[in-house]
Amino acid sequence: MGHLLITFHCHSYTFVFQRRAILDRSDGPRFETRRSHLLRYPPLEAGWKVRYPRISQHLQGKAMSHNLFDDTFVITGLNPHKKRFARVDRLVGRSTLFEMDLILDINSEIYQVRQDDEIALMLAHTPYSDGKLDPKEYQHDMSSALMDQYEYVTYGKVFKIESAPSAGANVGGSKESKVAIMISFGGLLMKLSGDQKHVARISIDSPIYCFIRKTKTSRTT
């Protein structure tokens, strides 16, 4: 049985529909759609989508040329200031390649991440691996989409970028420029901080997709 969760906004509510593919040996696959959740979020234009992954290995090379940021994060903290919302977890992480710091809100009702898990996180301006523009609406046939390679996909907007020079110096003697990028995914927030050169293609007010999948799961229960 396969599952597909999609959402849309109506006033101050987010409706979540679950599409289930049910295998029938005599008639082949059939589909049914039912409203499975009703969540209340701020009435923002952005939203989130979740798909269970269909890994497309041949697309991964193409995807690399179209992303805005790509790294693996170790989750070092979970809800550091206590859990404020029943269906939201706040993750704190540190990236293994670029040494970026991450604070990220996720919908914990449909996607769970624990402390010490490792996640691959990519930011892109389009859900398509060939770089074509976002169609601005959900399409069922998105076999070439980047989201086929990931487990949790959110869509939002960059609403703030802060910059400040680093106190340290790089190898050439000049100071590295540090930035903090803030993104809202329908009220779920992300803060990505670190060296500006690793996120130089991300601009203010730009729409953005965030793709996440687990690469390592902690053994704690």
From TrEMBL:
One GO term of the biological process aspect: DNA-templated transcription
Record-linked SMART domains: RPOL8c
Family membership: Belongs to the eukaryotic RPB8 RNA polymerase subunit family.
PANTHER family the UniProt entry points to: DNA-DIRECTED RNA POLYMERASES I, II, AND III SUBUNIT RPABC3
KW Protein biosynthesis (keyword) present: no
Key words, A-Z: DNA-directed RNA polymerase, Nucleus, Transcription
Molecular function terms, GO-annotated: DNA-directed RNA polymerase activity
Signal sequence, start to end: none
Protein name from the UniProt record: Dna-directed rna polymerases and iii subunit rpabc3
GO cellular component, one term: RNA polymerase III complex
Subcellular location per the Swiss-Prot or TrEMBL entry: Nucleus
One Pfam match: RNA_pol_Rpb8
